[in-house]
Design brief:
It is a single chain. The protein is an all-alpha fold. It has one domain. Helices cover about 65% and strands about 0% of the residues. Helix 2 runs antiparallel to helix 3. The longest helix has 27 residues. It is elongated. The model has no long low-confidence stretch (mean pLDDT about 85).
């Protein structure tokens, strides 16, 4: 994986949280904390997209999906990705 340096500005509360997390030994450095937070955020968004997809097709196992339903689900997934 290619890595690049990114400079970010955080409020003091988040800086303190990151520092405390590293100091207690949960992570080796600040970058590791931020990477883990972003991974969790991405996983959460993917889980929500899957839930939306499952809700859209709930109860539809006995019938074929209409073109309109498929477009509605695709639009919902695209809209959630833009958030």
């Amino acid at each position: 994986m290619v890595t690049k340096t990114l400079q970010i500005t955080l409020p003091d509360e988040l800086k303190s949280f990151i520092r405390r997390t590293v100091e207690c030994g949960r992570y080796q450095d600040e970058s590791e904390v931020v990477r883990e937070a972003l991974r969790r955020m991405e996983a959460s968004e993917l889980k929500e997209e899957l839930s939306q997809f499952e809700r859209a097709f709930a109860g539809g196992h006995e019938r074929a999906e209409s073109e309109e339903e498929i477009r509605r689900v695709e639009a919902a997934v695209q809209a959630s990705r833009k958030k």
